[in-house]
Design goal:
2 copies of one chain form a homodimer.
Chain A lengths: L1 E2 L10 H17 L4 E12 L5 H19 L2 E10 L4 E9 L16 E5 L4 H10 L8 H8 L5 H6 L6 E4 L4 H12 L2 E5 L7 H9 L6 H4 L6 E5 L4 H11 L3 E8 L4 E4 L17
Parallel strand pairs in A: 2-3, 7-10
Antiparallel strand pairs in A: 1-4, 2-4, 5-8, 5-9, 6-8, 7-9
Helix pairs in contact in A: 1-2, 3-4
Amino acid sequence: MLVGGIHFFENDDPYLIAKKALRVNLSDLASMGAEPLGYLLGIALPNKNFDPDKWLSPFVDGLKDDQERYQLKLWGGDTVSTTGPVTVSVTAIGQTENTVCLSRSGAKIGDNIYVSGTLGDAAAGLVVLREKMDQEKFEYLIKRYHLPEPRIKLGRALLEIATSMLDISDGLLGDISHICRHSNIGAEIESKKIPVSSALGNLLATKADYSSLTWSGGDDYELLFTTSPSNDHVIKKLSGQLGIKLTKIGKITEGHKVTILDGEGVEIKFNKRGFSHF
Amino acid sequence: MLVGGIHFFENDDPYLIAKKALRVNLSDLASMGAEPLGYLLGIALPNKNFDPDKWLSPFVDGLKDDQERYQLKLWGGDTVSTTGPVTVSVTAIGQTENTVCLSRSGAKIGDNIYVSGTLGDAAAGLVVLREKMDQEKFEYLIKRYHLPEPRIKLGRALLEIATSMLDISDGLLGDISHICRHSNIGAEIESKKIPVSSALGNLLATKADYSSLTWSGGDDYELLFTTSPSNDHVIKKLSGQLGIKLTKIGKITEGHKVTILDGEGVEIKFNKRGFSHF
């Protein structure tokens, strides 16, 4: 459920809002190893000071483009009016090839922890927008915030290999904590191994205080998964086949604690668990 | 999608809001001849001047009671905050015994038009609430407004018999127009045959100007269906078996017009198509 003023700026392009609303749901399917089939859409539109046609036209274009891109259909839904902000509720339906799907609860002690892509970009893109920084210079980060790329093929390929998986929506730290809680284990992550894009690197070169975005920033919708060390070679091969960076960032440990180590192997203390949207 | 201040009063009991949000969706499944299996729930809760725990506790009780009543499970969902009113989005999933389900598009010329239960009660209940009439006296009507009864068993039984079906959410006139448009036919309805509850009869005895609620009032969630005249005896038998009043109110005609006849067989002119919520 995406709410104007909470999950997106009320003056954001409806074309991008439509795509993001769909994609965050497709990412959820991807994290279970499922392939999307169709979706249902509820929209509440403001009944005052709002031009529904003007807003819906690009919104529908965004849906149309992503329906084609991801080969899925709109199965139904509802459109209502509200005294509040634009509210978009998407329910995406998918299926796995197996009768089972992946969950957060299967991680085992000794498993390696992997992430796809790079982390912190979306949160940094939001910072760029909120602090009115140079949008042209940080276009890549803004795009990562507006347009997550659900890792559907990767999710399906990992169905038989990963022991647990989710998509990073709250931030690496918050989400690995979810896996630990559901799997009843701990985790140790080496912060220097967390994959960072060159665009985020450029931002951090001048604003080092945002470096925590790599583990606390949400909205990346990259896959976080655990797998036996015996699969390291399979993961490497898969990365090459799909053209998606897959990085080993830590391992599953005994206990229940999530530890993040700095470049010298010293534990980083933190008080912000995960990521809050605005 | 139900929005506070639009589809329910903001001070309505959350226990009843939960039930109504579920039931209007179950009614949609019933109208397709489907049996409910599970549902997904999105809730947006106000981030100011609102006590989420106080609101959610009876809301969850309402969900729990109706999950038991209708034997269905909560499969997932999302809870977010909003600067607007409480917004509840339910997606119910069901299945039919056949590979097909019933739609609005199969009505044939000569078919009889039936409705289940009585019409106008829910809209009259809303009038009672809005005009602060005697709530005790009209308790039945208020209950019909707050707690629709999805006709799941009836819907399933009609799967093989009806040519078209929907659940009356916009009002008889608006909804029969949907069937006519989708089936490319017309309809003639005898207003004197529209089934009226004794509770609504009591209200109309003093407020005759509300008599149009029977064909314009929404929110009844009774089933409206068409079927061949050869099935009249099957419908009668079904009504007895299920203990649900099923009333023949008119027939499908050539053309594209919906006609409502008064007690003398004279066409009633109207300018209000269907029913607007508040």
